[in-house]
Automatic annotation (TrEMBL):
The lineage of its organism: Bacteria, Pseudomonadati, Bacteroidota, Cytophagia, Cytophagales. The keyword DNA-binding does not apply. Its EC number is 3.6.4.13. Belongs to the DEAD box helicase family. GO terms for cellular component: cytosol. This is DEAD-box ATP-dependent RNA helicase RhpA. One of its GO terms (biological process) is ribosome assembly. SMART domains: DEXDc, HELICc. Residues 381-484 are annotated as: Disordered.
Length: 484
């Protein structure tokens, strides 16, 4: 199937072709016709599935066609897209502009916390038809009288499970009553824990169309996976050793904490390896500049936390390196899902120390495969045993800072820098509570970001590729110890 078969209007088809898109992804094939027909939609989809185009493309067509017939007053907000993070909001805004470039009367803007509100307010005053927003800044500007949602025709709630993880559900429940009851609603989530299902049932019309793509446990066959068993103290040297391979042209390195990301960057810079970090403690300008440098190839290594990386979609990403094994197995699928997209080859390397062996075991159970171990590398440690897929002795969980096994739902008790970014109770410098209306707008979006929009190299469809997963509704928590 091609986009030409989806009953799309010529201006949108032209924009898609200019972007190099020919074949829609499965979620686009299923969702676009249903959205065009005016149905409410429940989409269960992970990163890399083409989810963003699955709603931006038909929304643009609906708004264009109804404007031609009903002669709406220009500049009123007709579509609201609510998303948990600034990075994702920016990418969705870019998608609306790209696919709607030949529909000049449809204007869009993005609003989010962490930056001054004046430019956003000025854009709203000039008039927009599509508003992409994060919850806290939206409520803030609504309370100041700059935004009226009574004219909304299409409402999109994106990354609902991440909204729950980040504590935004109460904000959403404050926003929903401000929307007109007569509207089309599109609801997207990577997972469907009970609270998210209840929320979906409360805002969707009865019998919505349900679209499900790629379960969370899947990893792409195009990604070559390998694990290095290494002592924690040797990880920095091992990373330098691996990066001596000039075939690793553009690599995304994952750490569990913001402090860890900065430390890795300092180590690489001392070794004359170009690297930058992206995480919640970095300013918005820094993050955008680092991402632009990485996309342009001027920065070879981008070091990121899981939360910040959810807004990243980069063409020609050849390698992902898990400098630290994620304590949530679904995050592993998310991480390696950023390479090997749309049939391109990718490589995912993981550095596993003794304290992380339990995490590796969880990952292998989730993806139902044994990850090959790299043998005889310069930092091979006999003290770090390989992890079998099944059988073998029980693997102890990492211990907390006082030598006791960390309790579920608890992280280390010492300072925020040692906690995984986005965890409740993290340090106040960007990793704290989500923004609330009238509160500190600088904190919003610093706790999340799931890649959704954009196009990987060589793809024939928007945002195509293998899908990743997310956390299980916040139920699996950091176990302490190795993330300190």
């Amino acid at each position: 199937m091609s986009f030409d078969e989806l009953n799309l209007i010529e201006p949108i088809l032209t924009a898609l072709h200019e972007e190099g898109y020919v074949t829609p992804t499965p979620i686009q094939q299923q969702a676009i016709p249903q959205v065009l027909e005016g149905h409410d939609l429940l989409g269960i989809a992970q990163t890399g599935t083409g989810k963003t185009a699955a709603f931006t493309v038909p929304i643009l067509q609906i708004l264009h066609q109804t404007a031609q017939v009903e002669r709406h007053a220009p500049g009123r907000i007709r579509c609201l897209v609510l998303t948990p993070t600034r990075e994702l909001a920016i990418q969705i805004g870019e998608s609306f502009r790209a696919y709607g470039r030949h529909l000049p009367k449809l204007r869009s803007t993005v609003i989010f916390g962490g930056v001054g509100q004046h430019p956003q307010v000025q854009a709203l005053k000039r008039g927009v038809e599509v508003l992409i927003a994060t919850p806290g800044r939206l409520l803030d500007l609504m309370n100041q009288g700059f935004i009226d949602l009574r004219t909304i025709e299409v409402f999109v709630l994106d990354e609902a499970d991440r909204m729950l993880d980040m504590g935004f559900i109460h904000d959403i429940k404050r926003i929903l009553p401000k929307l007109p009851k007569q509207r089309q609603t599109l609801f997207f989530s990577a997972t469907m824990p009970g609270q998210i299902q209840e929320l979906a049932d409360s805002i969707l019309r009865p019998n919505p169309v349900k679209v499900t793509v790629t379960p969370v446990s899947s990893t792409a066959d195009t990604v070559t996976q390998a694990v290095y068993m290494v002592e924690k103290t040797d990880k920095a040297d091992l990373l330098e050793h691996v990066l001596q391979d000039k075939n690793i042209r553009r690599v995304l390195v994952f750490t569990r904490t913001k402090h860890g990301a900065d430390k890795v960057v300092r180590t690489l810079l001392k070794a004359n390896i170009g690297a930058e970090a992206i995480h919640g403690n970095k300013s918005q300008n820094h993050r955008q500049r680092a991402l632009s440098n990485f996309k342009a190839g001027t920065t070879r290594v981008l070091v990121a936390t899981d939360i910040a990386a959810r807004g990243i979609d980069v063409e020609e990403l050849t390698h992902v390196i898990n400098y630290e094994i994620p304590n949530e197995p679904e995050s592993y699928v998310h991480r390696i899902g950023r390479t090997g997209r749309a049939g391109a080859d990718g490589t995912a390397l993981s550095f596993c120390d003794d304290e992380e062996r339990a995490y590796l075991q969880d990952i292998q159970k989730l993806i139902r495969r044994q990850i090959p171990v790299v043998q005889n590398h310069p930092y091979t440690s006999s003290a770090v045993a390989p992890v079998p897929l099944s059988g073998g002795p029980a693997i102890k969980r990492p211990k907390g800072p006082a030598g006791r096994p960390a309790r579920p739902g608890r992280g280390p008790q010492a300072g925020g820098s040692g906690r995984p970014e986005g965890q409740r109770g993290a340090g106040s410098q960007g990793g704290g509570r989500p923004e609330r209306a009238g509160g500190n707008a600088g904190r919003e979006g610093q706790r999340g970001g799931h890649a959704a929009a954009g196009r990987p190299a060589g793809t024939a469809h928007p945002e195509g590729g293998n899908a990743g997963g997310t956390s299980r509704g916040g139920q699996r928590r950091y176990r302490g110890g190795s993330g300190r």
